[in-house]
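Quick one: structure for this chain?
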Amino acid sequence: MTPGRSLKTTFGLAALSVSLAGSPALAQQRLGWVGQVDGLAAFQGSADLSGGGNFTANRSFLRATALYLADPGTSVGLSVSVGQFDYEFSQAVNQPWTGIRDIRVSVPLRFRVGDSATAFVSPQIRWDYQRGASASDGRTYGIFAGVAWEVSERLTIGPAFGAYTQLEQGGIEFFPALLIDWDINDRWNLNTGSGLGATRGPGLSLSYAMTESLKLSLTARSERIRFRLDGTGPAPNGVGEDKSIPVVLSLDYNPNPGVSLSVFAGAEFDGQLTLDNATGVEISSQSYETAPVAGLAFRVRF
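Got it. Here's what it folds into:
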């Protein structure tokens, strides 16, 4: 067995599902209902804004999942998460928003397709809104789906896509993704993983199993969150957006198959904050400098 990977994740689904939805090892050992609780706390350090001043941000998420494993290739579940984005701006004249809430409900479904492929579909409802705004005004819908083939014992790969409605933007946001879980050798692994609180599709993670219980990973992904604003501020009842490309190095400790503890640190690149008014017209866009980020995460399966 590969060190540090006693529960092999078949896909590493995007944020809409959880890793145990794609864990055949777990499914073979224990059918029926299983659960997972995971959490995240992250701090983004000071970043200079092109519009003047700087800002910091604290982010926290908590997710609970119940999953019914019918057989090694079939599962259905319910996942609920609650998140908070707290922003602090140094200049009152350049403070587009403050605290943002993020609530998500998804129903991940996985099933076998032939002898070597597994498909999944995960619809999701999200509410992203500033404190003081109506949660229903920040509601969006979406789906993440795909199929992956087990090419060999070491490689699982396949296409996927995401499609989501957007706040005050016409049409559907669509993006393709490639799912991969590749044991390069007994210690190195390359995979697309979800990441708690991720706002778009899968990122890419290269990990090294140092021991049976310690793993070092380098992960990068594209993040973009849009949220409804309250009735005050420079864009009353408008929409705010924060997007960046975080790259982090994490150390994961897995004392047993049911528990994982992680610390991570890195930076957010190519950051941008955007304001749209209530009719969807962009009224402000400012970039921010590379920002340091660090945090803690945990996962408990039962």
